[in-house]
Amino acid sequence: MPTALVVDDDPDIRDVIDYVLDQAGFEVFSAPDGEAGLAAVLGIRPDIVLLDWMMPRLSGLEVCRAVRSDPDLTSIAVVLLTAKTQEADIALGFEAGAHDYIVKPFSPRLLVGRVREVLAQIDDAPPPALL
User: Fold this and answer.
1) Can you tell me the distance from the alpha carbon of 59 to that of 83, in angstroms, rounded to the nearest whole number?
2) pLDDT in tens, 60-77
């Protein structure tokens, strides 16, 4: 069973994502902010992390960079799931090492499909380098 970590400071969004991924066959963990999320990444070593960008303590972008800079975590997929829609923000997300960037609001069906797609790509290729 693949594992997913959902890091978002909005409990309602966290609950929705947790439910959708659980129903899709994932073992789901969650964290309420970037600092707790990074600690959970280190402790759980999930297959994939879904990160909100705008969170207290550490932003999703900071968590993404921290994960990408740790050689022991290179097998973990990272997806930014955020309301930031500007082209420059999307570019920053990929430059930080995200495998995908999903804009809120999102379709639950699309979310599951994109998560599965990212995990399939991870199995076939090395993770992106931190730029």
Assistant:
1) 13
2) 999 999 999 999 998 999
> What is d(CA 101, CA 77) in angstroms, rounded to the nearest whole number?
12
Encode pLDDT of 75-125 as tens digits.
Answer: 999 999 999 999 999 999 999 999 999 999 999 999 999 999 999 988 765
Per-residue buried b or exposed e for 8-29, using 16+ beta carbons within 10 Å of the residue's own CB = bbeeebbebbbebbeebebebb
Residues 83 and 45: their CA atoms lie apart, in Å, by: 26
Fold of 3-124: Rossmann fold (3.40.50)
**What do you get for the CA distance between the two ends of the chain, in Å?**
31
Q: In what order do the strands lie in the sheet with 100-103?
A: 27-31, 3-7, 48-51, 77-82, 100-103
- What residues does each domain of the chain span? 3-124
Structure tokens at 130: 């931190």
Instruction: Round to whole Å and give the CA distance between 36 and 42.
Output: 10
pLDDT band at 126 (very low <50, low <70, confident <90, very high): low
Measured between alpha carbons, how far is 7 from 55 in angstroms, rounded to an integer? 9
